[in-house]
Amino acid sequence: MEPRGVARRYFDAWNRRDPEAIAGMLAEGGTYSDPAAGPGLVGPAIAGYARTLFTSFPDLSFDIHVPVLVNDQTVAARWTMRGTNTGALAGNPPTGRAVALPGADFIVVADGGIRSVHGYFDQRMFVEQLGLHVSVLPKGTGPVSFGTSTYFQPGNRTKPGAMSLTAIQVRSDEEAQEVVTYTRRIMGELPGMPGFISFLGAVVGHRLMTITAWRDPEAIAPMFRGGAHREAMERFFGPDFALGGVTGVWIPHRINEMHVRCIACGRMQEATGQVCECGGRLPEPPPYW
User: Fold this and answer.
1) Would you write out the chain's pLDDT as a tens digit for each of its 289 residues?
2) Alpha helices in 225-265 (DSSP H)
3) 3-129 is classed CATH 3.10.450.50
4) Cα separation of 87 and 55, whole Å?
5) Is 180 helix (H, G, I), strand (E, B) or coil?
């Protein structure tokens, strides 16, 4: 079959959302790559990648522009991928956002089968269309490492009487994602615990850390009785998970009073009332943590 005809059948398989048919279009040893999949997927891995995309975007489809024959074996095809993110994506909950992502595939055909597919698209555009935050940071500079953080504060302005801290060093990206999944479940349970104040989590490479603020040490007890936190600890102390880690409860030695700046005179003072010494109104104080 002429290469452009093979390319059309390949895209038809994508638009039928048929992972096995997609993988079946590639010849034995044929490879697939794109910015998200990485280099050189082969055989069942291609079907698995397609299946993951269809789970994240059940209505996924491609608008194909007229394929162009670059040479006797290579087809260049511009496309626009469309779909709505109603399923989990890379461990993240669905955003419900629709995407219309332009891209291009270069497809090499030999003896009626596809030898390779190299896909190209703008990863930043993809993430931004999903309504997600994009940060570009170096991995590290000298002793300083960079990562991402999550802050959860439901509006509790209580002064913390205890902090629970966790730091886990994992061995792989897969283990890091497992910790993140447990953490998201724990965050969903925290608002139901009366003494919970706020949560701060950070991921720096394969090191994952959390700091959770509580009204007092006794308020932490429900964390250990069941739910996602107990499951996570059983996983951590069970066989073959993570390199190591530490947990603990810290009691503050001293937390000073919250200070706010007067709107009228600009003076910084304790947020013990609603009116400044100058008679001006004080702003609503932020949470302690």
Assistant:
1) 788 999 999 999 999 999 999 999 999 999 999 998 878 899 899 999 999 999 999 999 999 988 888 888 999 999 999 999 999 887 678 899 999 999 999 999 988 789 999 999 998 899 999 988 767 667 778 888 888 888 999 989 999 999 999 999 999 988 998 998 889 889 989 998 999 999 999 999 899 999 999 999 999 998 888 889 999 999 999 999 999 999 999 999 999 999 999 999 999 988 888 888 898 989 999 999 9
2) 227-237
3) yes
4) 6
5) helix
Looking up tokens 């990562």 gives 147
Pair type for strands 268-270 and 259-261: antiparallel
- With CA atoms as reference, report the closest residue to 81 among 55, 110, 120, 26: 120
Range list of H helices, the chain: 3-15, 19-24, 44-56, 123-129, 173-189, 227-237
How far, in whole angstroms, is CA 260 from its chain's centroid? 34
Phi then psi dihedrals of residue 75, to 5 deg: -115, 135
DSSP category for residue 238: S
Nearest-angstrom CA–CA distance, 13 and 19: 8
CATH topology of domain 148-250: Alpha-Beta Plaits (3.30.70)
Token match 């993951």: residue?
52
Cα dist. 247→113, 224, 237 in Å?
Answer: 55, 12, 12
> Where does CATH 3.10.450.50 sit in the chain?
3-129
Residues 11 and 33: their CA atoms lie apart, in Å, by: 15
Asked if 148 contacts 202 with a C-beta cutoff of 8 angstroms, the reply is yes
Tokens of 178: 């497992």
Whether residue 80 contacts residue 15, with contact meaning beta carbons closer than 8 Å, is answered with no
Contact (CB, 8 A) for 70 and 106: yes
Q: What share of the chain is helix, strand, coil (3-state, %, to 5)?
A: 25, 35, 35
- In the chain, where does the domain assigned CATH 3.30.70.100 lie? 148-250
